[in-house]
Amino acid sequence: MSARSTRSDAVVDGLLDWEIEIFVHVPSSHVAPVIQGLEAGGVRGVLANREEEGVGIAGGLALAGRRVALVIQDNGFGNALTALTTFAKAYHVGLPIVANTRGGLGEYNAMIHNFSEAVPDLLRAAGIRAERLGPGQSAALWRRTTQAVAELAVMTHRPVALLMDVMHPATAEDLA
Amino acid sequence: MKRLEALQVIDDVYAEDPLVMTCGAASRELASLGRRDSHLYLLDSMGLAGPVGLGLALAGVGPVAAVEGDGSLLMGLSMVASIAYHRPEGLALVVLDNREHASAARIPTQATAVDVAALCRGAGLDTAEVSEPDDLRAVLTDLRTDGRLGAVVARIEGGNATGVPFLLEDPAALAIRFTAFLEERHDSALRA
């Protein structure tokens, strides 16, 4: 499930357009193309074990002035909410978060929707802005939106999430 | 040694270096010794001082000290593996080990039965154990001077210092002063 897709490539290109220097990630199968694409693009990846730990590591890099993004799967927001709110949001850390979504159309896991369907509402309740990308948007729009999300996070000094639906059957048709 | 004595040593050795301080009473006690822009006081985010310190060290702004308690280390124990895996130069992970949640009715932590120094050592971190202020000062001074990665587990007494005021400043203001310090010292470019 780590095949490259045009839209995952577009997210990578968007981050490269932003001139990302380093990224912190917690791997998952559907976000692996972004991780691999960034590393293939010469961007250093920092492996974390849990998403809240990733928020801390990426936050330290951001405070030190590095162009850094956190790359995770959306069920990791459950692990990360306290760190995102009491650290990244409270300390005004401009941190773009790229997360693939689960539990929607095209899902094959009978459990994960129980968390992932609630992620947009959870982020809204926590005061964390989220932008969403799905199959109805072109790869070009995915690329430009990704760059804009990263710019917005840094400009507004807060975490901003980019939720990308790479499992929708219409998105999956782009799988190479 | 009391936690305030340990914090005085850490504050002395890392006076002009980035230091990330774990949450709650420990952060307030460090601030009570004199606020420094070089120090990032976490007011909550238990278990995040180590990861934030790791990020700072990976950014190359070392030497960096990250101070956790035994309880906060155990809450975010994966930080030990991440620090050992990425091995940034100049990061000192300091664990103030009182074997209790001092701010939570002094309920014992699992460190009463689990050797946190052995956990650090088992992950591959060069780990020192100290119980006296002079020994803590010597170990930290060596780590800082040599720019080495290492862990220091400092055995301290339980309980919180009395009469220490709350740290009620907006965290955003704390972060702004900290990043201004980093920018001035390391010519950081992002906010330009």
Overview of the structural elements:
The complex is a heterodimer of chains A (176) and B (192). With 176 residues, chain A is α/β, with parallel strands linked by helices. Helix content of chain A is 45%, strand content 18%. Chain A is built from eight helices and six strands; from the N terminus they run αβαβαβαβααβαβα. Chain A has helices spanning 6-17, 32-40, 51-63, 77-89, 113-116, 119-125, 139-156, 169-172; strands spanning 22-25, 44-47, 68-73, 95-100, 129-133, 159-164. In chain A, strands 2-1-3-4-6-5 form a six-stranded parallel sheet, sandwiched between helices. In chain A, β1 (22-25), α2 and β2 form a beta-alpha-beta unit. With 192 residues, chain B is an alpha/beta fold. Chain B has eight helices and eight strands; from the N terminus they run αβαβαβααβββαβαβα. Chain B has helices at 3-13, 25-32, 49-58, 70-75, 78-86, 116-123, 133-146, 171-186; strands at 19-21, 39-41, 64-69, 91-97, 100-101, 107-108, 127-130, 150-155. A six-stranded parallel sheet of chain B has the order 2-1-3-4-8-7, with helices on both faces. In chain B, strands 5-6 form a two-stranded antiparallel ribbon. In chain B, α1 (3-13) runs parallel beside α7 and α3 (49-58) runs parallel beside α5 (78-86). Chain B is globular, with a radius of gyration of 15 Å. The N and C termini of chain B lie far apart (44 Å). Chain A binds chain B through residues 22, 24, 46-50, 52-68, 82-83, 86-87, 90-93, 154, 157, and chain B through 20, 40, 42-45, 47-61, 76, 78-79, 81-82, 85-86, 171-172, 174-176, 178-179, 182-183, 186, 188-191.
